[in-house]
Amino acid sequence: MVLEHPTGEPAEQAVGLLRQFGPVHVATSAGDFRVLELGSGEGGLVTSHHPDVVTFVPRDAPEAPSHLAVGILGRSRRDRDGTELRVVPIEAAPLP
Question: pTM for this structure?
């Protein structure tokens, strides 16, 4: 998750966004995704229907890293995150 405009407690904001925009509902915009390859070659970002909700998929997962395979894996991880709602460590990056 990338919070473009964080407000209040970042963990609470992240959980709220994941609760609303994390779960996948096939045949709706919640099932849509796009794969963005990282220039570093480390993997890709899988977008969702909310600009702040993205999922990183390392280059070596899945086994056959086509855009479709990366997208499906990222979308399934987003769905899991949106139902488990478990916060991992948060890092704040300085704005450019």
Answer: 0.83
